[in-house]
Amino acid sequence: MSQSNADEIDLGLIFSSLKNSFNNLLIRLYYGIQFLIKNWWVIGIVAILGVATGYFYQKYNKSDKTTTIIIQTNFKSTSYVYSAIDLLSYKLNDTNYLEQIGFNRQGLITEIEVEPIVNILELLEKTMYSYRAIEPLLEKADFEDELLTSEVFFTDYKYHKIFLSTTNDADDEVIDNLMDYLNSNQKFNEIKAVVIEDTKDQIIELSKTIEGINNLINSFSDNSSLDNRSKDIYISTGGGIMDMGLLMEKKAGALKLRENLKSEIVKYDDIVTVMNNPSLHYKDRLLHLDQNSIPVYFIVAFLMFSYLKYQYKKVKKLAKSKQSEL
């Protein structure tokens, strides 16, 4: 019986404590609303000051802008692209040179770098070395990431990142100017024309091959019934015997290659193809500052100051009451 009474008392204390906490929360909320109503004009002035500060900050802010451009290098132009970007980086202070290659005096590039997007599978497919020969280098790359982005391998990657920083006056036109600069090489444009024509011819030949295989399979199907074991079927062509399974594999390979060529030729309009939608933006900071965010920071700072001031007066009053008791 006594144990039951003790449990009821404990539950009563818990509910009472929760009720008091909830009431205290409501009281604090009431005081907060009263503070906002009483000081609405002060908050309004702080907000106006914040808007004005944000306007002038955004107008006269000289922070640099930045973006990352993801590119694909076509026609084995990777070395050329890296050399062209290195030359541009070296000539950034030469405004006459920049104007000659299409850049304006306003909105100049302040920094530009390029690095490959590392793809191990792509590296293994393109490298002239066997996996056993390249394995020690890959093991070393676990400890030295710079190895995979060094001059040893960077030409074997298809995709690359250009890190671009500009002055505050620049807009997205500088990105277009950069692409025009990289795509202006006469020799690679001549190579481009040749590669495009060759790729078109390859697609036509692959289509003829696929059509020929289809005709051969259809002619056999008209004269025979095929079961699910097509890999065990052989066709007599008069001059020899053809494995049906091998024929189907060749068709699948031709279809895949044609699909890849069709996808690549779309990107052959330029020496360097942009693969994302880059846009210049201000460099990241701990706090985002603009005409919309600065007023919010001002109001939050005012509310925090007012709360700390209230707590200070409260503690000061408690301290005086303790002293009077002593």
Order of secondary-structure elements: HHEHHEHHEHHEEHEEH
Distance between the termini: 46 Å
Strand content: 5-15%
Please, what is the average pLDDT? Answer: 79
CATH level-two architecture of the largest domain:
2-Layer Sandwich
Helices and strands: which structural class? alpha+beta
Query: Segments where pLDDT lies below 50 for 5+ residues?
Result: 226-241
Largest sheet: 5 strands, antiparallel
* Overall number of domains: 3
Number of strands: 7
Shape type: elongated
**CATH topology tier name of the largest domain:** Alpha-Beta Plaits
**Please, how many helices?**
10
Helix content: 55-70%
Describe the structure.
- It is a single chain.
- The protein has helices at residues 2-38, 40-60, 78-90, 95-100, 120-126, 131-141, 173-182, 186-223, 244-265, 293-325, and strands at 65-73, 109-116, 159-166, 234-236, 241-243, 272-274, 281-282.
- The protein has ten helices and seven strands.
- The protein has three domains: 2-60 and 288-325, no CATH class; 65-187 and 270-282, Alpha-Beta Plaits, CATH 3.30.70; 192-265.
- Strands 1, 2, 3, 6 and 7 form a five-stranded antiparallel β-sheet that branches.
- With 326 residues, the protein is of the alpha+beta class.
- The model is unreliable at 226-241 (pLDDT under 50).
